[in-house]
Amino acid sequence: MNIENLVDKFKSGEISVIDYTKETLEAIKNDPHNAYISFDEEDSIKRAEYLNEKLQKGEELGSLFGVPISVKDNISYKNMRMTCASKMLENFTPIYNATVVENLLAEDAIIIAKTNMDEFAMGASSKTSYFGVVTNNLDTNLIAGGSSSGSAVSVSKGDVLVSLGTDTGGSVRGPASYTNILGYKPTYGIMSRYGVVSMSNTLDQVSLFANDIDDMRLLASITSSPDEHDMTAILEEYDFGKEDYDFNGKNIAVIKADSELYQSIDETVKEDYQRAIDRIKDMGANLTEVDLKYAKFANPVYNVVMSCEVSSNMSRYDSIRYGHQTESYDSLEDLFTKSRSEGLGEEVQRRIALGTMYLSAADDQRIYKKGLQLRTLIKEELEKLFEDYDLIITPTTINLPPKIEVGDDDPLSDFKADGFNVIVNLAGMCGISVPVREGISGSVQFIGNRFEDKKIINAADKFLREAK
Q1: Are 367 and 320 in contact (CB under 8 A)?
Q2: Most buried residue among 270, 286, 429, 455 by CB atoms closer than 10 A?
Q3: In this predicted structure, what is the pLDDT of residue 409?
Q4: 356, exposed or middle or buried, with CB in 10 Å at 0-12, 13-18, 19+?
């Protein structure tokens, strides 16, 4: 069932909005994967009753009427806590809604739960969450990726049809690949970031999970909007209209197999990627291997730019205005030190320290400035490709979901699998992760130039229909 079918059943009375909401809450309460941090049964049922009353009165109903949607716990919904999976914000409740949440509510959706994630979105495994790791619903011995792990699992296991996450360097597309669903990272600016806790301002983007491509298209069209509160948001509505994407005769770029981005690629991922390439060839596309001179620097550049922006953004958590505050301290400096040491996890502290080092005036910010230069070169290199090619296709990640205990002794392990995702964020472009087959497997990513979001969603639609 997709959103359109569900809404039709609500409108016809075949399914009760109230009963469906209660059933969804039961699935959330009994979730064995630790996918959720917060839910408010009273709030959700009250919302369902309000929507049911609208239906009974014959009022105009929104396109998400009665649809429960889970939201990553760094996106503000004023009726539930927003913890960012951190002790620092364990008891924090926001006073306003994020713009993307307002857009959902305007179409009569129900925000059913806040999902588990890596602390302040820093990680690719959910193992940095103060509330514990999210296990993969396809195999509980495996991680579900990160940082938007809970949102991915909530869709993959069928608790909800769609969910909101955020993607800074693959944080939606990676978990989507690991849980075998769709994960879409929009062009930077298409989604408002107002009410979304910043990790890395120039890389973060609200991103979406779905099982059904029509659901993804509908959700994208609703969450996307101009926003006077976000100076980086688009100025006009974006058209996500459905069109039949014809692969026949299209020139599509494939990154050469000797690129460092493929280093240590899993054999199963490689085989599934080849399946995707073969399917696209069979649809008549012209695939050409291309060499990317600067993409090999993507992960280290991401590490530098992200850490510097983290260092700046995390300075607001001073434990004075809100957030965890230590019980005893001797001075103001001692208050800051103890509160942040207790309230922030090891990975968050590591990234703050790295960013502070990279921004050091004593070194004239040499590493940070070099990172920005390389970021520009990566962006320009990709833009040049789109002068000759319609799409770029890559594997989404280079590995299958690892076992939960793998990587615990390597603090840099989170950066190794997402090179193909990171280049999209660094360039502000759009990408969508699409399953190749059922079960735990590799996924393919369609990458489009800035504001070619409609194209990549329609290409993914055609790719999936061809598989049936």
Answers
A1: no
A2: 429
A3: 66
A4: middle
In this predicted structure, the answer to whether residue 413 has a pLDDT above a threshold of 70 is: no
Q: 86, 126, 129, 147: which one is catalytic?
A: 147
Two structure tokens written together for 230: 């976000």
Task: Give the range among 182-196, 339-353, 395-409 with minimum mean pLDDT.
Answer: 395-409
H/E stretch holding 251 reads: strand 251-255
Report the amino acid identity of residue 457.
I
Which of 125, 126, 171, 311 is the catalytic position?
171
Nearest of 152, 156, 191 to residue 172 by alpha carbon = 152
Single out the catalytic residue among 72, 114, 157, 454: 72
253 vs 391: CA distance, rounded Å: 6
CA angle 133, 216, 57 (to 5 degrees): 105
Length of the chain: 468
Which position has the higher pLDDT, 11 or 409?
A: 11
86 is catalytic: no
Give the largest CA-CA distance in the chain: 71
Note if 341 is an active site residue: no
| Phi-psi category of residue 129: left, alpha or beta, with phi > 0 → left and psi -120 to 50 → alpha | beta
Question: Residue 396 is which amino acid?
Answer: T
Given a cut of 70, whether residue 414 has pLDDT beyond it is no
* pLDDT tens column, 119-138: 999 999 999 999 999 999 99
Alpha helices of 157-191 — where are they, by DSSP H? 173-179
In whole angstroms, give the CA distance from residue 251 to residue 249: 6
Q: What is the pLDDT of residue 467?
A: 81
Average pLDDT over residues 44-66: 98
Specify the DSSP class assigned to residue 241.
-
Active site residue 72: yes
Distance from C-alpha of 457 to C-alpha of 463, rounded to nearest angstrom: 10
H or E segment to which residue 135 belongs = strand 135-136
Looking at residue 287, its pLDDT comes to: 98
Task: Answer whether residue 411 shows pLDDT above 80.
Answer: no
Which burial class, exposed, middle or buried, applies to 340 when counting CB atoms under 10 A from its CB (0-12, 13-18, 19+)?
Answer: buried
Q: Please state, in angstroms and as integers, the Cα–Cα distance from residue 106 to each residue in 42, 87, 448, following that order.
A: 20, 32, 29
